[in-house]
Amino acid sequence: MSAFKLYVPGDAAAVALGADRVAKAFEKAFAEKGMDVEIVRNGSRGMHWLEPLVEAVTPQGRVGYGPVKAKHVAGLIDAGLFEGGEHELRLGDVEKIPFFARQQRFTFARVGLVDPASLEDYVAHDGYKGLKRAVELGGPATVEEVFESGLRGRGGAGFPTGIKWRTVAQCPPGQKYIVCNADEGDSGTFADRMIMEGDPFTLIEGMTIAGLAVGATKGYVYCRSEYPHAIKAMNVAIKAARKAGYLGKQIAGSDYDFDMEVREGAGAYVCGEETSLLESIEGKRGLVRAKPPLPAHKGLFGKPTVINNVISLCSVPFILANGAKAYADVGFGRSRGTMPIQLAGNVKYGGLYEIAFGVTLRELVEDVAGGTFTGKPIRACQVGGPLGAYLPEHQFDTPFDYEAFTKIDALIGHGGVVIFDEDVDMARMALRHGVLRGRKLRGNARPAELDPPAGWRRWTR
Amino acid sequence: MSTGYAVSGGARGRYEAWTPNRGTEIISDHLAMEGATLPILHAMQEAFGYVPQDAVPLIADALNLSRAEVHGTMTFYHDFRHEPAGKHVVKVCVAEACQAAGGHVTSEKVSKALDCAFGETRPDGQVTLEPIYCLGLCSCAPSAMVDGRLIGRLDDEEIEEIAAECRA
C-alpha cells in the first residue's frame, strides 16, 4: 500500500490530451522526491474540457486538478496536492462541478471513480450485485426484470431489450450467444468507448446476466479496431474476471456457465449493423443479412443470439441490483431510464452527460454544453449520427425521447450530439455526409440501407 | 507504480519478415477459435506489418475455406494492408464532429506538412497518411493518431510535432 494515491485518467480522450505524458512526469517527479505514490489510470469523469483531470486522494477526499499538462507537475507537487493544496488548476471535489452534479449516473456511476483494471475496486463499488440478484431470480425472472425496466436498445433503434431477450430465452435449449455491438462508428459518439475503458467489468457483468437470463454460455464483444484502449481494457478485465471465477464454469459459485471474448473489427463502418457484425465475427465479409430470420432465432453461427449495444448491456447490472422500478421511475413517456448523452463537435464543455430522458436539446447544448467552443452562435446540431438529422435552432425544445424525435423525422440514435456554429457550410456538410456515407458503406449495403439519411433529405428539401 | 491499461507508443516498430513457417505458426495459434479468419488476419498484420498474399492459401487450407473466401474477407476490410505501410502511419479523423471543429482545414495542413496525400505512402517510404472515420475523441476534436499515439485538439503546434516525428 502506497502512502499516496493519484488518479490520472487512462481514457483515450484524456490520453489524446496528454494524460500519458502527465502520468510519466508525475512518476518521474515522485521517484526523484522519494515519494511513494500509487498512480491509478482511471476512466474519465466525462468533463473532457478539463482533461487531463487528475485527482489526488487527500484526507478530505478526492481533489481534482485540471487540465494538467506535464509542465504543471512540479508546481502541483509543490502546492501539496495530497493535502488539496491551492493551485490555479485546483477544481476541488469534481463531483460538485455543475456539469457532473446535475447528472443522473446510473450506468456510468463508476466511470472515472474506479480503477478499471481492478476487480476488487469494482466489487467494492457495488459491482456484481446485479449478477448476484440474477442468480437468485433465475433466468425467466431476470428477463422479466429487464422487460419491466423499460430498457430500450441504446444503439439507435430503441427496440425493447426485454423482448429481444424473451425471444432468445424461448428458443429451445442448446448453443446460444450473447453478442455485444461495440462497433461505435458514428461520429459524435464515444459512450461505448468510455465505459469499456473506464468500467469494463460493468459490460462483463451485463453480458453475464444476459447469458444467465436466456441460457447462453458464450459471449462476444465486437469492438472496432479504432478503439485500441477499449480493447486492451476489456481484455485485462476479462482475464481478471475469469481468474476470480466470474467467468467460466459455474460463475460466482452458481450453476451457470458463461465465458466471453473480444473480437476486433477491421475498419468496416457497415459492421455496426447487427447482421453484418455477425457475419464479421464468423470470419466473412460484413454483408448485411436479410431479415427474417431475426438474429434472436438464427444469429451467430445460425444459433439464437442476443445482440445488444454496449450501453444497453451496461444498463443491466444497475437494473438487476436496484430493481426494474428504480430504473423505470425516471424518464419521459415510453423512454424510461437514463441516456448517456455525448456532447461533441464545436462545443465549449464537451463530454459525457448521463441524464433521464425528457431533457431538451436546448438545455443540453445551451446550458450544459455552454454553446460553441468558438463562441459563435449555434447553427445546428447533428443528433444520432449520420442516420439521424441536423436539427436547427427552432427544434431545440424537443425533449430527448424516442417518440418525440421520431415525430420530427429525427433520431436519438446513440445519443451523440454534434454542435456546429454559424460558420458551418451546411451544403458542404450534407454533401460530404452523402459522400462519406456512400464511401463508408462501399456499396455493400442493401437498398434499404442506401436510403438517404434524414439529414440529407432535410437539406435537399 | 502506475496501474491501468494505457496503451501508448504504438504500432511502429520492426516487423518480422514473412516466412511460410511463421505464417503457419500464427494460424495454428488461432485454430481453436470460432470464426478465426479475422483474428488470424489481424495477427498476420501485427507480425508482418501487412497480410502477405502467400498467407491467403495457408489460411484457406487451415480453415477449410476456399482461397476466394479468404481473399474476399481480407479485401473487404480497410484495415488489412496488402503491402507494408510507410515507416510512420498518420491517421487523421475526417468524420463530422472533427469537421465541426475545423477538421477540413486541419487535415489539409497535415497533408501539406507531411508532403503526402491522403490514402498514400510518400515515395521515400517515410510516412503513410490515411483518413480515419472517428476515433471516439469527438469532444476534443479534431483528432489524429500517429503510430498509435492519440492526439486531440490538433493544432499547428501538434502538426509541427507530427511532421518532426515523421522525419525521424
From TrEMBL, chain B:
It comes from the Bacteria. CDD domains: TRX_Fd_NuoE_FDH_gamma (cd03081). Coiled coil: none annotated. Binds 1 [2Fe-2S] cluster. [2Fe-2S] cluster binds at C93, C98, C134, C138. PANTHER family: BIFURCATING [FEFE] HYDROGENASE GAMMA SUBUNIT (PTHR43342:SF1), NADH-QUINONE OXIDOREDUCTASE, E SUBUNIT (PTHR43342). This is Formate dehydrogenase subunit gamma.
